[in-house]
Specification:
Elements lengths: L3 E10 L3 E11 L4 E5 L6 H9 L6 E6 L2 E2 L10 E4 L11 H11 L4 H15 L14 H13 L5 E5 L7 H18 L3 E4 L3 H7 L2 E6 L2 E6 L1 H5 L3
Bound molecules: adenosine-5'-diphosphate (ADP) (2 copies).
């Protein structure tokens, strides 16, 4: 895993929309940072810039010691977990997990080892020959996380990964992500507008407002009422 450093990161969309107005933030190696704030405050723009899905207007983005501003998403050594699972419906769980590694030219036995290791960690080893539709929502979410995990990335980005789940499953997955984080110590940047999710998961919360950081602190510091 690696740190993520944002220095004066800015995004201006065409039409002079200043979506992100100069963010300084250092996410430590192994730290889980949750980005919260009202709709339109710039959360997904910021996450997409880190992922490489959106160009950076100004500022510097580093993964570890490496400046990655101009690298393609695939070259950034970062894995993104989406809310819609983004699983291939026609492929088995095994092949869903293996697909990204195959594309990256991994050898068959390396793929086997990584898939089996991730499957054990996520407790989906018994489902590897099933198709996504034969899984529960929670199991599918774990496969989606497995696809990120097999790549052994420097960091994880989460874009509202639980927002499509029903309330019960959301609670369950929140706990699972927390447990996984404790075990794996993944450097993570997680976007949500669910306050409970933010409080449960975050080592540190960053509150964005109008494209700027309004507050940074532990869940206690942010949400504790006097
Ligand atoms: P959030 O994820 O917090 O809801 P966004 O990052 O999606 O916020 O949006 C931040 C601001 O940038 C909003 O004012 C939004 O309308 C604007 N915005 C987002 N995407 C685009 C785009 N592709 N072109 C122009 N403006 C955009
Ligand atoms: P990775 O393993 O790095 O996520 P893949 O090569 O598996 O990359 O997928 C390439 C891109 O296609 C990724 O951005 C991924 O999120 C997207 N993708 C994967 N599965 C689906 C799907 N079922 N529907 C739409 N997009 C998908």
């Amino acid at each position: 895993m690696a740190s993520i450093t944002l220095e004066g990161l800015k995004k201006t969309y065409s039409g002079n929309v200043d979506a992100v107005k100069g963010i300084d933030l250092a996410i430590e190696d192994g730290e889980f940072v949750v980005l919260v704030g009202p709709s339109g405050c710039g959360k997904s723009t910021l996450l997409r810039m880190v992922a490489g899905l959106e160009s950076i207007t100004d500022g510097t983005l580093k993964i570890g010691d490496r400046e990655v501003n101009n690298l393609e998403p695939a070259e950034r050594d970062i894995a993104m977990v989406f809310q819609n699972y983004a699983l291939y419906p026609h492929m088995t769980v095994y092949n869903n997990l293996a697909y990204g590694l195959k594309n990256r030219g991994f050898k068959k036995d390396q793929i086997e080892e990584r898939v089996q290791t991730a499957a054990k960690m996520l407790e989906i080893a018994d489902f590897l020959q099933r198709k996504p539709r034969q899984l529960s929502g929670g199991q599918r979410q774990r496969v989606a996380m497995g696809r990120a995990l097999v790549r052994d990335p420097a960091a994880f980005l989460f874009d509202e990964p639980l927002s499509n789940l029903d309330a019960k499953l959301r609670v369950q997955m929140r706990v699972e992500i927390k447990q996984l984080q404790r075990r794996l110590k993944t450097t993570s940047l997680y976007v949500t507008h669910d306050q409970l999710e933010a409080m449960t998961l975050g080592d540190r919360l960053v509150v964005l407002n109008g494209g700027q950081i309004e507050q940074v602190g532990t869940p206690m510091e942010i949400y504790a009422r006097p």
